[in-house]
Design goal:
The protein is of the alpha+beta class and about 90 residues long. The chain is about 30% helix and about 40% strand.
């Protein structure tokens, strides 16, 4: 199954490692360091217009990628639980 992240991006559900709410994610020093490292490595894909509402960390054979999306973490959770397929 696949998870729709917004703006025509989908990822295999099995590659999703974590979903972070951006309102609280950067409060953690570990999460902030993760985001900074992935930014430095060019592994962040921005899928939002105004501000990101959630971050989705995926791990594939090509490595870690962080998707910043305008879709809320609650909506992503509902999509994953319902096995929302595109």
């Amino acid at each position: 199954m696949y998870l729709h992240l917004g703006q025509d991006y989908i990822v295999p559900l099995q590659s999703v490692v974590a979903v972070f709410d951006m309102d609280t994610a950067t409060a953690s020093k570990r999460t902030a360091r993760l985001i900074e490292r992935l930014q430095d490595e060019g592994r962040i894909i921005e899928l939002y217009d105004d501000l990101p509402r959630a971050a989705v960390l995926c791990d594939t054979a090509l490595g870690e990628t962080l998707y910043l999306t305008g879709v809320s973490s609650q909506a992503l959770q509902r999509r994953a639980e319902k096995k929302y397929a595109v």
